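Look over both lines:
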Amino acid sequence: MATGSVPFVSSLDIAHFKEVVGHYVTGVVVVTAATEGGPAGFTCQTFGSLSLEPILISFAAKSAGKSWSRVKPADAVAVNILGSEQEALARVFATSGIDKFEGVGWSDGPRGTPLLDGAIAHLEGALLSATTHGDHDVVVVAVDFVASHPGSPLVYYRGGFGEIA
């Protein structure tokens, strides 16, 4: 694998690329943190388990995103895996310039991060690193708390929300 510093230039059409990648079904999460300005968070679909020893997860956040800029300095983050009934919540946390926590139920996790009510799972841990790749930061989190709850996941497929039947 080449690791030089020369940027790769692609002739792919971005719209076509997004259409093709949209065929991959993803879950939907909301990443949250306690910040000096109050709770912050954003909707994210690029999330996954990274390592079992140590237990690590990763997610990708738009580097220039306003919500990510609030979350990034935090010591800890939570990943709230949304349930099939939480499409409206996913849309709220995907919106810029609003108080995303207005009217949203949540409780503090062990590290003080917001754990959203109704999520089917919560993971919380220390933010280890964030490295920029293209227009996104790839973030690694050392997990030290997990919880799961009954329910079906909210999924994202071909540009829209859905659920597994």
Notes: The chain has three helices and twelve strands. The longest helix spans residues 14-21. Residues 129 and 140 are 5 Å apart (CA to CA).
